[in-house]
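Handout, page 2. Input:
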Amino acid sequence: MPQDPIVRSPSAYAYPMLIRRILETGLWRAPDQTIAYGDRRMTYRDLEARVKRLASGLNGLGVNSGDTVAVMDWDSNRYLEAFFAVPMMGAVLHTVNIRLSPEQILYTINHAVDDVILVNAEFLPVLEQIWERVERKPKLVLLREDAAAPKTALPLATDYESLLAGAAPDFAFPDLDEDARATTFYTTGTTGLPKGVYFSHRQLVAHTLGVGGEISCGAHGRFDAEDVYMPITPMFHVHAWGFPYIATMLGARQVYPGRVLPEKLLNLIETEKVTFTHGVPTILNMMLSHPRAASVDLSRLKMIIGGASLPQSLAKEALERGIDVFTGYGMSETCPILTLSRLKPEWMDWDLDRQAEIRCKTGRPVRLADLRIVDEAMNDLPHDGVSQGEIVVRAPWLTQGYLHDPENSEKLWAGGWLHTGDIGVIDEHGYVKVTDRLKDVIKTGGEWISSLDVEDILLKSGKLAEAAVIGVPDPKWTERPLAVVVAKSGVEVSEAELKAHLLGFAERGLISRFAAPDRIVFVAELPKTSVGKLDKKVMRAAYGQSA
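Output:
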């Protein structure tokens, strides 16, 4: 017999899950906690005041509920203020990926229908290049680090600090529908135009609560109010993985680095006593390889690695430096975090090699995230660590589609589960391991090969800084793996040496002989996407016809 709908008293308050609640919680818990950006220091009280002034100032520029405010900036206190002020006033925050090409940025500005753009002076030349083709001609608010006015022909409405100084000091944030769209940003897919993903207030609060609850406990890698947080993942990329919201809710001290440069990050870790961060493997490798790293104490640092596979060799190097490093997994469409790969308490005494193996897995689903591996008919596959299938997911914070793109939205959600496009296995402990992207898996002679496994083995040689394995056409075997590698600085290594290294793993039964690449290409650097992932599309185009 079906239950009757809930009966609500006429005076009862239906508490909506709004981004405003995150700020209110942090302010209540730690009003005098500080946020640092460059020479600026402000408290959570100051943050609330500036958020109100920003909302008032934007309202004065004509921004109303449902309008879109874009940000083009490095990671700064201004970005954090926009994370709150824009959605809290009922507008939509568009975080522009400033690493996209000018043509892609133009597309996202027009597609999102931006009404206002908060733009760092560094990115004025990009806007100047595309301005004639910007359809809506949004109002421009200048973000700058010094008092010098930049030379530009663009019609600047005002600058950020003047906007706040001239705005009313209070703003009455309305109670909104928790399902109202709060943010929009664009994926950096390897094919076609960028796709707009979007999230509601409810989804962002659910992600903050789900991931925040998960990360605040465990045998290691905890993030709580005693930590000092600094994002290394750009704030334009999936809300810096949602951690600025989590940090604010906890009332943690926050440090914003501006433009991400290895030496600057290491200096901030030392001077600001940073204890928690997150980023892609490339930036971790750059930090550990930098001469400054030798004199910086990294033993307090906890770091989530995502965006690409974490090589075991890099994880072990970080662990040897005292960094509590582990993998997180998700994608733009998932807000993003779905899994974290932390050790069970009884595994904490393992040696670093065994720890690295677990820490480099994709991990176990966080609270409220449902994850399956399925075959093409959506049948569940065994959790035996061997059976490979596509990872499909459900969680309260997944995008419900692509902006203005119903066809691809339905493909994303085919069968009522969000399709990640990743191939993986689940072991008997419930740990997921992504073995490849659906589009990157290599099929040779009827056998499936994981490019990620071969890449990791190549890096275990200890002589490579980076490695990528792609499938290239082969008349006999359909496809064969080809490796594109970067040698470590000052290290000599040959193709024959690397092939012998791979053969050793094949002889031990750890990979198939078919998985060993026929050819290894040495390059100075590997092409990457705007968020630091290996761009295998570019590599397939460059080497696919010349194998």
